[in-house]
Every structure is written in structure tokens, then in C-alpha cells.
Design brief:
NADP; methionine biosynthesis; elongated; homoserine dehydrogenase activity; alpha/beta; 399 residues; 15 strands; 36% helix; Rossmann fold; six-stranded parallel sheet; 3 domains; nine-stranded mixed sheet; EC 1.1.1.3; Dihydrodipicolinate Reductase, domain 2; Alpha-Beta Plaits; HDH_cat
Amino acid sequence: MKIAVLGMGTVGTGVVKVLNTNKEKIESLTGEEIKITHVFAKNVDKARDVDLSGIEITDDINDIYNADIDAAIEVMGGIDHTYDIMMELLNNGIHIVTANKDLLAERIDDLTEAANKNNVHLNYEAAVAGGVPIIRTIENSLNANQISEVMGILNGTTNYILTKMTIDGWSYEDALDDAKAKGYAEADPTNDVEGIDALRKIVLLSRLAFNRKVDIKDVPSTGISKVDAADIQIAKDLGYIMKLVGISKYDDSISASVEPIFLKADHQLASVNYEKNAVYVNGNAVGETMYYGPGAGSLETASAVVSDLIHVLTQPANGNFQPAEDAVIENKAVEYQYYLRFGDSEADVKKALDGKVDHKLNTAHESVVAVTAKLNIDQLEDALEGLDVKAKYPVIGDE
């Protein structure tokens, strides 16, 4: 098989390394050699720490269109221009393996339609949770189940920051600076810390788990940039751990969101720390399952990319998964317990909440804190009317 690699950054170089290092095993699985013939890169003269000898490196996409290739690995990122490139390749009968969650979360249905029309693969295991094999697990290994819930720690940057704030008592700013220094956070960390990256991933997981087309604009997301370290420490004393969680549930409609959530300390996801990712899936036959591992990294992500490439070679292109129905996202009926911190006096909080919602008050800290019984968002807003709410987070695992 002849392939082109589009993008030669962290993941692209990792793909070359995995293909070279594990060449013998890969060929034993596929029965043929995988040969990189072309690389598409912005800077053709840049020095790279992989051997690209014998490979045509170009910054002209027409060289890729005109190349004699069977598949393309897209790891360059971007949305609109990359979409045009992928559509051109798919319509030319070229298999695509991609790690581009940004593009897929917005245009996966269009790309899948083109792939199926041209009888080629569109594989994207690396787009969600890096090296954690969750896409094909849901699509194949759990396909005998009706899946009712998908929940995950889907962003390593925010998980690293929250772990440092929880375990070491660091401020958000110090933890973010450390994440940047270690390479876990970009110079502009907005997509990570504001929940955008995790949002894109929960959209893709929801689509796959519930067989519905999910519009990313319908799913609310909140990041961690406004999290107060005081709440993390107060809740830790109460037995809760904060994580940025993407969560999606299905009944007659889908509820989906990304937001900071307090998990009971013995919850499966509460012990997932630092840059690691984990995805929890609940199926009606298998029950509760969880998948854990590295959510990013050169070789870690390349592992998933090359696995997808092996799948292209060993499995017939008999139709990529394509939902027929649009999702209806409805979050108002979802019930959570809530952690609440107030600027009001204990007497005022007690007076306002008593008779409206079951709750436990805690006054061992400077602020009055309450953990409520389960209630939906309308009930919560009604209970909090007139109160000075300093912090408000869902709680999971305390039922």
C-alpha cells in the first residue's frame, strides 16, 4: 500500500516512527508493505527527527492529488481547507485516516457520505482520547448493546491542571504555567481550558454511541478557567474530586454537556489523574465499562492512527457508520446533585433552601456550602433565587 502523510508535526513524525519501528509486525498483519511515498508539509526544508529519505516532501497539495497512493493520513489539523482536501481525496477513491476532531465534530457526516459513495474507509480512532481505543470499541466491540451513557475525561491538559490543583493545592494560574512548560498546554490554551476540545470529542462519541447526528452547536460546554481553587479544596474535604467531564446520556432524547463536575472520590473516573484520559460507557448487556490511557502524545496518538491504517488493509470498505436521524439535545430534565458555595449567611441560605430542596449544609469553611439532593436545572434556579451563589457544580456518584 502506498500512502501520503498530510502534516509532519508531532503526530506525523510519530506515525513515521511507528511504521518504521513496528514494520515487521505490521506487514505480518496486513500481508503487504506500507510505503510512505509523499508527505505534505508547510515547510519542506524543516529538519525533522525522522528519516524521510526516498519520500517526496511537498507543499503543493496538487502533488498529493496526482500521486499514485491508496490512502492518506491526515494529521495536519484545520477545518475548512482540510475539509476540501479530504473531500477531494475521498472522491478520488483514496482511503482517509484522520486524527482531526475539530473538523470531524463539524463535518463528519458530509465526509462519511463521500467515503461511502466512493467505497473507501474514513477512520478516526485517534480523534478521540488519543491512544485510548474507544471509537472502534463502541462501533464494534459494544455493538450488541444499547448504550445509555458515555462519560469521559477527554482532555489531558485540563485533567493535568485540575490534578495539580487538587493534589498539590496549586492555583489555576500556576498549574496552567506548569502544563505549558511540560508541553501539555499550547501557548494559547483556549480550546483546552474552555472545554472546546472535550466538546468536540463528546459530540463524536455521542454520534457513535446513540446512532444520531449531533450538531455541536446544540451541546453546551463550560471550561475550567474560572474554577476557584477554594472550591476544589472544600469539596476535597467533603469527599469529592473535580474533573472536566464530557457526558452524554440517551433515553428518548440525548442530554449532553461538557463542564467541571465533582465526582465522589470512589467514582471510577475520580482516580484518573494528570494528563491521562478515560472513557466510561454503560451498555444494557455489558453494564459499566471503562477505558483508560494516554490522551495525547506523538507515539501514543500515532498508535491509533497506524491501527486505523491496518484496519484499512485488513477489512473491506463496506460502509462507514452513518446515522440517519438528527439528535434532539434536551438537558433541562437531567437531574444532578449540586455543590453550591454561597456569599450569604448560614441563616439566609437555610431559610432560602428549606422546604424547596433537600440539602446538607457545611459551615466548616469560610463560606457556607451545600450539597443538594438530585434536581433539574429549573428546580435549581428556583431554589437559588435571591441567593449570592459563588460557585455551582454538578455532583456525580453520591447517590
